[in-house]
User: Fold this.
Amino acid sequence: MDKVEEEVEKVKKEWDETYSKVVEQIKAIEEYGKSPRVTIAEPQRDSLPRMNGLAQDGLALLNSLQFKLDLFAPQLPTDDQVQSAKNLLESWKNRSQSLRLSMRNANLQAKANMRKAAQKERELLLGGGEESTVRRRNLQTKAGMTSAAESITESLRRTRQLMVQEVERTAGTLMTFGEFLSLHIKSIFPLLRHCHCYFYDFSEQLIL
Assistant:
């Protein structure tokens, strides 16, 4: 097996692995919103935008691998291998297009799932019974935690502002004191020189 054949085999293996991952991601998108959320905040790893981002990355990688195969195909040793690679490339393009269509349908299904889940949630909240009470309490707890977090953030922001203002005020005070001290030292020096000359003249008069 020459170098080109080895590269083609690597591309085939990576394409198959990537294709399987994208299929799984699209299935996960289609199921999004069906399972009840058991946590107060939905984990970021399960967010719909992130799932779509991973699927889009997979589709982009498939296109890149198709481009590689298109480059390698004419360099294969035999005509049969060249034709086989071209047929495979055409199959890949069709399957990639099918994946894009499936992904679009999966997102439509996910949105329908979320609408249905939201409707069910409203019905449960407005209904009676213990379950409705528990759900309302959970929502109140979530709202309270969110409010507390925002309050803490605002408090930290105000504290930081006060600290910055205090540092600036202290720096200004030190600067003013330094200027004051420098000015007085400059004014004292002539007086000291005058006193020195006076005492010097007075000492000479005593000696005489």
Observations:
- Residues 3-126 form one domain.
- Helices lie at 3-31, 48-72, 79-126, 130-207.
- The CA atoms of residues 92 and 124 lie 47 Å apart.
- The two ends are 120 Å apart (CA to CA).
